[in-house]
User: Fold Glycoside hydrolase family 127 protein from Candidatus Blautia pullistercoris.
Amino acid sequence: MLEKKLTPMSLEHVQIQDKFWKGYMELVRNHVIPYQWEALNDRIENAEPSYCIQNFRVAAGLQKGTFQGMVFQDSDVYKWLEAVAWSLMWHPDGELEKTADETIELIGKAQQPDGYLDTYYIINGLEKRFTNLMDNHELYCLGHMTEAAVAYYKTTGKRKFLDIAVGYANCVYEHLGTEEGKIPGYPGHEVAEMALCALYDITKDERHLKLAKYFIDQRGRQPLFFDEECRKNGNKCYWDDTYMKKQYYQAGKPVRDQDKAEGHAVRAVYLYTGMAEVASRTEDRGLFEACEKLWDNIVNRQMYVTGAIGATEHGEAFSFDYDLPNDTVYGETCAAIGLIFFARRMLEITKDGRYADVMERALYNGVISGMSLDGQKFFYVNPLEVVPEACEKDYNKRHVKPVRQKWFGCACCPPNVARLLSSLAGYAFEENEQELYVNLYTGGILDTVKNGKKNRLVIETEYPWKGRVKIRIENQEDTAFTLALRIPGWCQGYVLKVNGENAEKRPEKGYVLLERTWKNGDEISLDMDMPVQILEANPRVREDIGKVAVARGPVVYCLEEADNGDQLQEIYLKEEPEFKETYEPELLKGVVTIQAKGKRVSREGWEKESLYRTYTGKKFEDADLKFIPYYAWTNRTPGEMTVWVRV
Assistant:
């Protein structure tokens, strides 16, 4: 059975309180959301303008002007509104809600009588709408609007935004499809598929699930719609002149025939997430099997050690199996977020911890690396190796930045980070009537009803720096339910106790299942060994041969010039190094650093020599190495950085 077996805990029932994630969530609430609001209104000095709110004002007839910015600019405000919604759920804020309501009012004023809502076409000519579904992102904007509207309705109970989204979804339903008089099209940039499933869960309107399923089923069927659309409307597909062709859009063949992640990485994982959603609601075994094949291809052949995906700048895309260059990687922040979306849906269907392992890897590394520690600068691209001069002077690395940027003309990543972190509790804790799953370890208070009885769980932990987790049960009535504790894939040893007595249970698909009648005051302690681990890549990964990466718990580490000097390519780590772990509370908002003895290639004799010389063997000098968490790099002095180190 493919129905979802777990659902995210409502954010209003979770109070995240630990230093690590509460710090990020408060950063988003107090700094990122207000900062992004200023950016959406073009009030950030020396940052690229957004034009987002201005476009809505022009489309609503409130001011004169032309459409400006990216064709998908509407989506930035929708993602901001989703972040606001989740933030309001766990921290009510009257002023912020008022700003959101006013923004929704503005969006509603731009909506057309038949429900259509996309400022690019409202401003440039409605007669052109639905004429370039391949590239012009109308359905992408629908998707992000719908996700935001669902979140805002769940938080506030207000229907206005939800009704706007329903109006646009119904408009699309009336225009797209295989029925006579409709356009047999589907999104060029996926996201509407999963959004429509979320909308269906609220409206129970079969049209919304039917539209999501149609987008999945129609994609890639012959004759290819995008080819027909180009011929009919005179559009040009840039990607036809590349090896990707329509697979750039994951539209070169039916989705059930796809077993390798190809094309634009963000589009891909958004599509796969939608496929999992539709498969679970329609019991489509073939569609789910395609999801499993695509997942395995990504995780086992095309994912970076940080959880980043998308190896090439050309098309922000997957390239080919085991092609994982570190210095020209794209690794878009949005792609890592999309992988988390995909992981959670697969976890909800299977209750398999291997999906949570990837969710955790991407979250602690590939996602939060995309935002500075002060929440005011962002990475679009997340490299695993950087030489600042190369970023400036090597054309093939022009997309890689040695420092985070204030904002982007194409600003999909910052609001994406904000909405994910604001809704973090829903990824950490999931449940059903009889079970509570702890997917990610974060301290806080959870209120849950099991068998009609109220239970509170108080969780204490210093994760990810320490592997100890303590959970206390508080209830007024004894309650029978299963508490599922994830044992991460990186954990090679642990001690689990209930009320001080060893609970010798073997994990089932990555989770220890504690099934019992819980009493007030019961305590669970989980101590996970968290030694430094040395990771190596599959030998087929050419860029990482002879190199290792250092990790501790869920956190991947890197060497940074600020601690180790420049020319990091000269550094070698010993085969069996001794590591010293130190928590430094004043460094990078508090991190565990890792020190080790290493070697550095001697430059003796090279100063006066030519570029090449006869090889006489390597000479080394002793070097003291210091590793910091990858996510925190370039928050001090810009400089070189590398994740993979020679041995």
Observations:
- Residues 154 and 629 are 35 Å apart (CA to CA).
- The chain has a mean pLDDT of 96.
